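Re: iron/sulfur cluster structure - here you go.
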Amino acid sequence: MTDPRPLPAVRGCSTAPVLKERGQREVFCGLTGIIWLHRKMQDAFFLVVGSRTCAHLLQSAAGVMIFAEPRFGTAILEEKDLAGLADAHEELDREVARLLARRPDIRQLFLVGSCPSEVIKLDLARAAERLTRLHAPHVRVLNYSGSGIETTFTEGEDACLAAMVPVLPEREAAAPRDLLLVGALPDVVEDQALGLLEALGVGPVRVLPARRADAAPAVGPGTLYALTQPFLGETAAALDRRGARRIAAPFPFGEEGTTLWLAAVAEAFGVDRATFDRVTEAPRARARKAVAAAATTLAGRTLFLFPDSQLEIPLARFLARECGMRPIEVAAPYIHRGLVGPDLDLLPEGPVIAEGQDVDRQLDRARAARPDLTVCGLGLANPLEAEGLTTKWAIELVFTPVHFYEQAGDLAALFARPLRRRARLCFGARP
Ligand code: SF4
């Protein structure tokens, strides 16, 4: 039998000093999450209460086709709203009534706050309560903020899921212990995870967010939950308040991360080692082989992660331990030690660990280090490419299936591709 427990990093980064920066940041806002959330929740509608800028961001990021009926939209605040000359609540009620009359398929409506709605202090929580009373039981209306004030783009999903937790049904006290999988994964990846858990005999398993409102999971004391994304701190806190208990583990990126994540869940549910080995052996071997193919390009290369997706620490752990990369700086918008602690433990010591951003100072550090690969937001990638650095857009990591065994090779390949492209452009360089 193989031992799923990892070889610890010689010295991990859990006690490394953290460089805290609070300067100018270059990140997308939380509205971005609507693009993957609306695909996941098939009877939900996301109504952004914002400006034309917000509408343009969503339209261009989501690439909406004109013949498709999107399940998101923007209620645009006009100048008279911003100047307090109109009752924005009355207008919002009218917009929502029109929308729900036209779209009877909608069962969950999210009012999504933006910078403009926050600046004028539009109380969307009050609006959501009022609209729920008007449209219950067919539609539940919730609210959360996707504004770009003090957020990074993955916080949109966290805020959305955290808003759902207080209204999830209460779990029956006598019900058998169950597992809640938390995080919006692409359906194909979620199905793979559910298949593995079922083969291990872990269950019943429920998912947050559920694909449809009527499948919303019940929670309460007795619920064990496992996060699939490291940016769900508020959601985790909301679940804790409902009495659920989190299973701590590294995040399921790569063969090692997936194995450790599954091992933690298996241990919590009393799965025996022989079963664990039987279920995971073949997919582990496939994942190792697929990662090894990309690792030939990545091994020995230096890596600099700007703070963007909040996946930085688990990804650095994967790229260092499974792909042989050498992280120079690993920066995350926020470091929630309670969630990423197991990944920090495994990340080999050496890189600067940074939290927050002061973009000019960080650019200076990246230029001085000249890393082989820089992972950053779209706004920084093109200028850095023009300076001869090779970059990877962090936002691709949330739009691409990257979790669990079958995606481990694709995850490594995402980072190998820009290095190969650069090598082809600079003839003769190492592919
Ligand atoms: S929420 Fe703020 S940052 Fe996001 S698109 Fe609207 S105005 Fe811009």
